[in-house]
Design goal:
With 68 residues, this protein is mainly alpha-helical. It is built from two helices and no strands.
Length: 68
Amino acid sequence: MNQTINVSGLKPEQIEEIQAIIEAFQAKNKLENLQKSQTKIGKGAIDYLTEKPIKVDSFLTREQIYES
């Protein structure tokens, strides 16, 4: 979402402060989005494996794997 901020009448220092604040919020939002996406990926895989474990009767030998 883009919004326009009217900076007319402000001193250059004030405009720079506003720009710095906006950049800080943008960086914070990017970090939060990245953390959310990483959490969904990692948590989903772990949840899937712990909730639906794979049952193994025995382990296949190398020969059995390649013969199949």
